[in-house]
Design brief:
This protein is of the alpha/beta class. Helices cover 38% and strands 15% of the residues.
Length: 368
């Protein structure tokens, strides 16, 4: 039995008739950019998250860099971010000329909030809270530091669609919550798509203008903006997905629970959930000192797996100019050498999951 790390076709098949009908509805409407599907999705997504406003954008990266741009963060400013975040998080900062200030990760694969305050300088303007793998950051401590030093908080919720910290939804703590709807995400589109949520009406309107070439009225441009519009087709498909998101999240939690209960191998460290948080299990990320041997072992059994992520952003070639040496963030680097994401997708069968679990439990030292 061949098992993919992620099976997007399976996720389409769960609601194929609804997706197909929505495509036809949009195509027959004759309106394909910034129409009723986008407006409806923005209302529905904001309501689900618990925010006042949502603005659909072209991608999650757009959500990040435009957020920092419109929040006035640029050259000479610093933004604190986890050292193990996906590189797009860092790009959202540096595309505006600001400097990322990294803080090591914790045992939950998120920023170690106990280290944030020590990273604050007179140039610090914001904290980017990245809820990685569907695990929620310690937002109490992040907001405490932000309030103490008058810092802006931006949340990257690309992997945390419907996550909570002490009952409050991820994306509603900071000034802006940034979302990616890349196809693998919890509320995934069928191409690139993104959005921001905020309770600030003035800021939301700035996003609407900026995403459309800086134009509020056609051919009248008030600012130099960009083209980052969530299109009608993706918005319509996202509305279908959103209508099922609670059941989809419940399914992922059930799959994660079975993994945690049935994987019993001392060579494998299972993921933990931070007390006070829940997880939507965007990824089920284990750790294994013998990761390369484990991957070969799984590959031999036609079981897919993915490393999220093998190279921390500050050690990438793209950010070599920052001059940050290996060894600067030991927790992040240890994780980069050990983490492995197991197959996790909606529509995964019990037989498929049992096959993965059985293989993991049979793995022995040196890949035997």
């Amino acid at each position: 039995m061949k098992i993919k790390a992620n099976n997007l076709k399976r996720q389409y098949e769960l609601y194929a008739a609804e997706f197909d009908q929505k495509v036809l509805d949009v195509m027959h409407s004759g309106w394909y950019i910034l129409g009723e599907e986008v407006s409806a999705f923005e209302r529905e997504f904001a309501d689900w998250i618990g925010a006042k406003f949502c603005v659909g954008l072209g991608s999650g990266l757009d959500a990040l860099w435009i957020s920092f741009r419109l929040l006035g963060i640029g050259p000479g400013d610093e933004v604190i971010v986890s050292s193990n975040a996906y590189i797009a998080c860092v790009m959202g900062i540096t595309m505006n000329g600001a400097k990322p200030v990294f803080v090591d990760s914790d045992q939950y694969n998120n920023i170690d909030s106990s280290l944030i305050e020590a990273a604050v300088t007179p140039r610090t303007k914001a904290i980017l809270a990245v809820h990685l793998f569907g695990q929620c950051c310690n937002m109490d401590e992040i907001m405490r530091v932000a309030d103490k030093y008058d810092l802006i908080v931006v949340e990257d919720c690309a992997q945390a669609h419907g996550n909570h910290w002490k009952g409050k939804t991820a994306g509603t703590f900071g000034k802006v919550g940034c979302f990616s709807f890349y196809p693998t995400k919890g509320c995934g589109a069928f191409g690139d798509a993104g959005a921001i949520v905020t309770d600030d009406e003035v800021l939301a309107q700035k996003f609407r203008v900026f995403r459309n070439y800086g134009s509020e009225k056609k051919y009248y441009n008030s600012v130099v903006g960009t083209n980052s519009r969530l299109d009608e087709l993706q918005a319509g498909l996202l509305r279908v997905r959103l209508s099922h998101i609670e059941e989809l999240n419940r399914e992922r939690k059930r799959l994660a629970s079975r993994y945690s209960e049935l994987i019993q191998n001392p060579l494998i460290e299972l993921p933990r959930v931070r007390p006070g948080a829940d997880s939507v299990w965007h990824q089920y990320v284990i750790r294994c000192v013998e990761r390369e041997s484990l991957m070969r072992f799984l590959n031999q059994r036609e079981i897919g797996s993915v490393i999220h992520y093998p190279i921390p952003p500050y050690l990438s070639e793209a950010y070599a100019y920052l001059g940050i040496a290996r060894g600067s963030f030991p927790n992040t680097e240890k994780a980069a050498d050990e983490v492995l994401s197991l197959p996790m997708y909606n529509g995964m069968t019990e037989e498929e999951q049992n096959t993965v679990i059985r293989a993991l439990n049979e793995f022995r030292e040196n890949g035997s």
